[in-house]
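Extended Data, panel c. Modelled sequence:
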Amino acid sequence: MKIQSLEPRLFRVPLPEPMEDARHPTHTHFELVTATVCTTESVEGTGYTYTGGHGGHAIFQLLEKDIAPFLIGRDADDLETLWDALQWHLHYVGRGGIASFAIAAADIALWDASLTARGQTLREAAGGARDWALTYAGGIDLQFPLPKLLRQIEGYLEKGFRAVKIKVGRDEEREDLERIAAVRRLIGDEMVFMVDANMKWTEEQAIRMSEAMAAYDIYWLEEPTIPDHYAAYRRIKERGPLPVAMGENLHLVDEFVHALEIGNLDFPQPDASNIGGITGWLRVAELCRRGGRPVSTHGMQELHTHLLAGLAEGHYVEWHSFPIQDYTLEPPEIRDGRAWPRGGPGIGVQFDWEKLAPYIQAGPKVEL
């Protein structure tokens, strides 16, 4: 089964309202970049990646002008070889970064085609350990007034979530602690509660805040500082009482090697959209298994639910504020704190092209 074509598309999808965290510009929309592969056996597969609103055109161009010509004529089932070849093909100009996003879309498309041809689901291919994955609701809510933040948390509980995460990193540390205390009072003592600083703090500030937040039984402290500072992560973990999580800003498998070995990370969070797709994600998951660490995820819940349900060591799927699942036909269901994947053979993500059509920015128009 040879690759006959790869066709990318770029969509700019508005968010229901502007959202902010401690480091990034205000999010008003997300970009969805899809890649549809067609094989000589007339099997199609669609993969994708996403951005927080910037860089989508560069990803699209890399797929159209470089990755597509490189892949055409190659064996569509040889997923590992193709992934390694793409890494070296783009290594000099894009070790990580945008190249990892573009490779992700192509890799996921190839997985979709290969699994479809075999009649296998992604959950089965990942190991078939369970029919569900643990999940938590992660909001981009740093600047929400406290009453609005609490209403959002109440909405999570009504939808069936049993674990929640809020953003921290406000200019006044006191305000972070007041918001954490209010959320803990709302959800009670038994519910899992995480916080995410989005790289805002220095090492010393992260240790100080870890000590202050420990009274509220925080499950993990996510991205307290810049992710490249692996030794700082180790010290934040050793000197502060809270377990530490990160991974959404690591775009190479080797970066996770450093995060686990140097940073002694408690909760690795690879994102298939920017670690080179399913192949890269599974390689990180294997590192976690060998290191005795549970693997969680960042965003892309409509795909990651299938992966984490498949893995015996799968931990938490983040149900992210970028609602990509709202533009798919059979998104996972949330029941009693778990996400239940749906869909037949393939990756389990089928886009609702009619719903996406108004937001297309580049690539051929969707045929409805």
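The chain has a mean pLDDT of 97. This feature is highlighted in the accompanying rendering.
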